[in-house]
Amino acid sequence: MAAESSTGSLADRLVARFASADALVGVVGLGYVGLPILLAFHACGFRTLGFDIDATKIERLNRGESYMTAIPSAAIAALAAGGRFEATGDFDLLSEPDAILICVPTPLTRQREPDLSHIVHTAQSLRPRLRRGQLVVLESTSWPGTTESVLKPLLEQCGLRSGEDFLLAYSPEREDPGNTDFTTARIPRIVAGDGAEAARAVAALYGKAVERVVPVSSLATAEAVKLTENIFRSVNIALVNELKQVYQAMGIDIWEVIDAAGTKPFGYMPFYPGPGLGGHCIPIDPFYLAWKAREFGVATRFIELAGEINTMAPAHVLDAVNLTLNARRQKSLSGSRILVMGAAYKKNVDDLRESPALTLMEMLEARGAVVAYYDPFIPEIPPTRKHGALAGRRSVAWDLEEFRQYDLALICTDHDGVDYAGLVSAVPNVVDTRNATRAVSAGRDRIVQA
For residue 49, which of 20, 26, 147, 256 is within the disulfide window of CB 3.0 to 4.6 Å? Predict the structure, then answer.
């Protein structure tokens, strides 16, 4: 680390270093959020230091290997070979970066309450290593007030003070794994600081890595922005999930309705139904605000209703599978062979977080079905928080002759590059939750939308 100037404020010194990319950026948590932002800072000239508790991730990164389909191995190979990056599990090195970005998970407990344990543990690891002159930025999604009332007091227990000895800020992640149209650098960044100096420093930092920085007035406002974005999606997905059931009862194709409505050039934005919500954000973030709102005596009926509708989506899919087997095969779920197409929560990624496919696999097996899955992005299901019993399951090979032995195929994830026409020709019944078979013309009588 270069010697700091003795003149100017703490923010002045950091802004100058960020402007010239003469700074070390540390990222805690090298998952779907942390690794992309680290790559973005590395790409614009910063030295980077990645922290993670997963030794396998650290080894693979230092060897130049990617562990995400959304990030090509060539990008990681260039990162590792550039001389400005290291991945480590040694948290004593947290004293070295000029800026530390905290990108750790914020899941829900079994009682659907916020679980901030990863933020707390990170703060406890950082606290004895925190030094004067550092900028600490929380990127993890949480309820408004988390940075101010949870992270700040934990850090200040070391004796240093935010705004005087170090600077504290919040900038919510906005990653969309698999979206090639909007890379990290192209997605505008919301930033806020604990005071004007921190706000100035965090804007200067992210302004080097992304095309547009959007400052807001307070940490809580920035935290609320992130929740609002995902609650908006949750509510609208719940709406189309409910409309799907209404229109199905009327014999109307919800997908045709959405496509036609989408031709309106104003006042409408298409959302699509599915087998349930997946990913780390939309199934979780709304409950963070609903939980915090209770502290203020405010009911969040709309948010909670949307969560209820989306949570029930897998049960409606299960009913569709059961009815299809009853009507077309004169069979019950018990003993039926079901092929689940896709385990990832969305297409073209290897991300299993909160995937409704895993929920459906367990629900089908609980009813006595014999279940296998196919997913070219997920050859084996790793251990997960909710679905430990599925760990170690391996994807079957793509084999249309073998697929003829199944009673029904359930499409949960609409990966590109899959021969859906071949699937429909091989399996006597296909329940499609994603409209993946929309281009299939032969065998339409085998397809049930759900």
Answer: 26
d(CA 59, CA 76) in angstroms, rounded, equals 12
Task: Exactly one of 44, 158, 281, 412 is catalytic; name it.
Answer: 281
- Whether residue 343 is found in the same domain as residue 295: yes
Is position 158 annotated as part of the catalytic site? no
pLDDT band at 4 (very low <50, low <70, confident <90, very high): very low
Q: How far apart are the first and last CA of the chain?
A: 57
Cα separation, 188 vs 174, in Å, equals 8
- Domain that residue 241 falls in: 233-449
CATH of the domain at 155: 3.40.50.720
Dist. CA 203–CA 43, nearest whole Å = 18
Same domain, 405 and 309: yes
What confidence tens digit (pLDDT) does each residue in 49-63 have? 999 999 999 999 999
- Range of weakest confidence among 29-43, 173-187, 348-362: 173-187
The answer to whether residue 1 sits within a structural domain is no
Residue 261: count of CB within 10 angstroms of its CB: 11
Q: 213 and 335 share a domain? A: no
Contacts 24+ apart (CB under 8 A), 217-221: 217/192, 218/192, 219/145, 219/147, 219/148, 219/168, 219/169, 219/170, 219/192, 219/193, 219/194, 220/144, 220/145, 220/148, 221/144, 221/192
Q: Which of 172, 188, 217 is the last residue of a domain?
A: 217
Task: Pick the last residue of a domain from 190, 217, 244.
Answer: 217
Indicate the pLDDT class of residue 7, thresholds 50, 70 and 90: low
Pairing relationship of beta strands 213-215 and 189-193 according to DSSP bridges = parallel
Q: What is the pTM of this model?
A: 0.92
Instruction: Report the sign of the C-alpha dihedral through residues 385, 390, 391, 394, in that order.
Output: negative
State whether 242 and 208 are in the same domain: no
